[in-house]
Amino acid sequence: MEKQIAFVSSDRMGDSLIGMVAVNNLCRAGYTVTVFSDYLFQLRDWFPGFSIRSYPHTFKSKVDWQDFERVVVLFDRPFVSDLKSHHRHVEVMSESELFRSSKSMVDIQLDYCRCHWGIANPVRDNGIASVKTTGRLENRVVLHPTSVDPFKIWPQEKFLRLAEALRRDGLKPVLVVAPNERPDWQRAIEQGYEVACFESLSEVAGFLAESQYFIGCDSGLGHLASCLGVPTATIAIRKGTARLWAPSWHVNEVILAPSWLFCRPLKSRFWKRALSPQRVMSGFRRVKGRAQIN
């Protein structure tokens, strides 16, 4: 494989963090890789030693693709067809049969490194490094109750009942939301819960790195917490999708609605109603127990 590689990551945070597993293994194998990702560009201080640039949303973005001997694209995007017509070595990872596997997406990255690039002993590490923090704050549990996809959002009143259960267990729940979402969580503030928001993704990473646990909807922050070494519980809708996309770096449990909600139409319509705070709390306690053993 050519030594100068452009790695076009995803426009989603979780995918981008997973793609860094491939990038890290390429760099460890001696390749010079430039990563293109808006999310990773915001987190570039957490990836020292990596060259990271903003995401090229069109083929005509300010990137001279001819500077690279090969362009590797994590997931196909509309501009990739134009890119293929102007560059003779464009490789789209998601076109591999490996991406149809039932393994976790992190494991698929490892298989891809072995099968397509001949990297004998790839590592799960995505290269993230702990920026200096004050250390883990014992008993702080980050709750991330939102998602870019409204369908994945568990109801607010259930998150508040979960926060109450955590507090009864002697833990400190902190809800983390975007600045524009904070007004929607006034009820939580009135009930005495901390609702934290940050100006940058790098600040969020710092807060996660100092936390003991993470519970959240299926979103990129769960992946960020996991690769920072935080045990996570993920509220998800479908088992198959969760197996593929769940955070995979540290202890994680996927928490689903009861099994009697077995068919897709029922899950889509009723999963939020069927998944109780008690069920999520039970899943979290299993995560906590496994993390303490590890």
UniProtKB/TrEMBL annotation:
Tagged with keyword ATP-binding: no
One Pfam family this sequence matches: Glyco_transf_9
Keywords linked to the UniProt accession: Glycosyltransferase, Transferase
Gene3D superfamilies xref list: Glycogen Phosphorylase B
InterPro entries registered for this protein in UniProt: Glyco_trans_9 (IPR002201), LPS_LOS_Heptosyltrfase (IPR051199)
Domain of life assignment: Bacteria
Name under which the protein is recorded: Glycosyltransferase family 9 protein
Organism of origin: Gilvimarinus gilvus
